[in-house]
Amino acid sequence: MSNLLTRRLALLADDKHRAVLGGGLRGIERETLRVQPDGHLARTPHPLALGSALTHPQITTDYAETLLEFITPAERDIATTLEKLDAIHRFSYTKLGNELIWSQSMPCELPPEEDIEIAWYGKSNLGMLKHVYRRGLALRYGKAMQCIAGIHYNYSLDERLWRILAENEGATHVSPKAYQSEAYLATIRNFRRYSWLLMYLFGASPALAEGFLRGRPHKLEKLSGDTLYLPYATSLRMSDLGYQNEAQSGLHPHENSLDSYVATLTKAVNQPYEPYAKIGTKVNGEWVQLSTNVIQIENEYYSTIRPKRVINTGERPIQALCNRGVQYIEVRCMDVDPFEPVGINVQTGRFLDVFLLFSALEESPLITPEHGELLARNFARTVKEGRRPGLTLTRAGEEVTLKQWGLDLLERFKPVAELLDREHGGREHMAALEAQAAKLHDPETTPSARVLQALRENGKSFSAFGLHQSEKHAAFFRSHPPSAEDVARFTEMARVSIAEQEAMERSQTGSFDDYVKAYRASNLCPNHCT
């Protein structure tokens, strides 16, 4: 352990401070495709009985009309968060008819591009903005990419914790907002250093349906007639086969400070990209993308982790960060766990809490461009070859086996897990570490290895395995219907969301062209955010 981590853990272990460890919030966003009973993509619109995808706070759609997104409230304990996620699944299954929720991160068998519907949010200017943005994504990345699903883990620490650290370390020359923002950026830098470990431990997409690639060049191996894979891969979703393109290849927001991060994204949303400029924002008078810039809006930047702030109505993400600082971080690299009905379990959440608290408290030097490239290589090596016997990663200029580095990190995590267990009661965090150590000792127990074993048991077909797991999860939720209280609550949320969308469409004024123009002009931030 570093001296800084030791001092901070001792400080937080003090009886007068330890309660802040019970603060902070955890939220989950789970993406999942709706599929037909035969495992093919559903062709139906977002079920009206679930509410408005535009205004519902917990049940919406992501890029494709059939890509559901379930958003939990933010809770202090991940177990409570997962109870809320479970309730959303149970209610949704009462409104899906014979459709299933797809169990994998990588998509089911997909129809031709023209038959994949882009998410629709109604005729309000805001709804059209969200729809046209997704038209732009289809144009830039292809619609198949818009059917990839993941788990996003939203994490914050009690704001009192940052104030305790700042006071103890004599950081009285900066505002609490500035200290907190830069502390979250430091957390993100450590996440970059060690997130390859999450890919080894939780990556669950070593294979995909051949049709997903749409003829793109690749170096995957054929497992069966409809399935491609890499024998030691952990997460093809997070590889260069996932949600990436040439325009973003040179976009590397600097996470050494909030100012530089925001400046990089601000430049990207204002910098024209020639191939997009040749297309234009309209074709035959119809909007096809919001802008011809490197990214249309900040959320198009595809990253494994983001600094976030809850935005106000009419506010853009970078404005919120500038005006009020970083409030939480969003971890975006987690695959859907196909063996879990809701895509993630409590033990994984406990481990993430240890991993992220360690990242927040440990020393976090600035990252040079050269170091950033090295970290990206470690990550890329893990997602494609993570279970290869003897695989090495680069640490401090030397090659070290993934297994040894992983075990070293778990040892460094132990005092953090012990501190969380002391505050939480029990030993769930330590048990989570022990479960991950077992995966490092035996790669066959990782989710990616278990997926490949299950594929072999399902005729080596990714689609057959995905459908089998989807049916299994559907049977679980249908045999455990929601409580009457949850049905009433979600039914009311659906009613209110539809009424809100209708009111928005009735009351809006001004043209969509003017609305987009004003939106694009609203991304200016002051020279300094903190």
The CATH class turns out to be Alpha Beta
Question: Span between N and C termini?
Answer: 30 Å
**Strand content range:** 5-15%
Roughly what percent helix? 40-55%
Give the oligomeric state of the chains in this entry, treating copies of one chain as homo and distinct chains as hetero. Answer: single chain
What's the pLDDT, averaged over the residues? 94
Structural class: alpha+beta
Number of domain units:
1
Count of individual beta strands: 14
The CATH architecture is: 2-Layer Sandwich
Overall 3D shape: globular
Spans of at least 5 consecutive residues with low confidence: none
Helical region count? 17
Radius of gyration: 23 Å
Q: Give the biggest sheet.
A: 7 strands, antiparallel
In the CATH scheme, what's the topology name?
Creatine Kinase, Chain A, domain 2
Pathway: Sulfur metabolism; glutathione biosynthesis; glutathione from L-cysteine and L-glutamate: step 1/2
EC number: 6.3.2.2
Keywords: ATP-binding, Glutathione biosynthesis, Ligase, Nucleotide-binding
Family: Belongs to the glutamate--cysteine ligase type 1 family. Type 1 subfamily.
